[in-house]
Amino acid sequence: MIFRHQAEAFTSARNWSFNHLKFEGTVKSLILDGAVKSSRSRLAQFRRMQRTYPYVKF
User: Fold this and answer.
1) Please, are residues 36 and 43 in contact by the beta-carbon 8 Å criterion?
2) Whole-angstrom distance, CA of residue 16 vs CA of residue 22
3) Which domain of life, per UniProt (predicted)?
4) Do 46 and 58 form a contact (C-beta atoms < 8 A)?
5) Helix (H), strand (E), coil (C) string for the chain
6) Position 43 in a domain
7) Which domain holds residue 50?
8) How many Å is the maximal CA-CA distance in the chain?
9) pLDDT at 22
10) What is the value of pTM for the model shown?
11) Which residues of 27-57 are buried (b: 16+ CB within 10 A; e: fewer)?
12) What is the pLDDT of residues 3-50, one digit of tens each?
């Protein structure tokens, strides 16, 4: 009984963490997508900085 209970708890925890990671990934991709769409100029600025300071690791 104890073993079965532990296994159930483990699988539920594993499923939760997987779902949590999936959710986090979705949120991150949405945020990144929005950031890229909203800021072409920021991307251009970033490229300009990369050209100006090629030795700096961004």
Assistant:
1) yes
2) 10
3) Bacteria
4) yes
5) CHHHHHHHHHHHHHHHHHHHHHHHHHHHHHHHHHHHHHCHHHHHHHHHHHHHCCCCCC
6) yes
7) 29-58
8) 66
9) 67
10) 0.27
11) eeeeeeeeeeeeeeeeeeeeeeeeeeeeeee
12) 565 566 666 666 666 666 666 667 677 666 666 666 667 777 778 777
Residue 53 within a domain: yes
pLDDT at 31: 66
Residue type, position 6, single letter: Q
pLDDT for res 14: 63
The answer to whether residue 37 sits within a structural domain is: yes
**Residue 2: alpha-carbon gap to chain centroid:** 36
Q: Total domain count for the chain?
A: 1
Q: Are 11 and 19 in contact (CB under 8 A)?
A: no
C-alpha closest to that of 46 among 36, 28, 21: 36
Q: Which residue has the tokens 């961004």?
A: 58
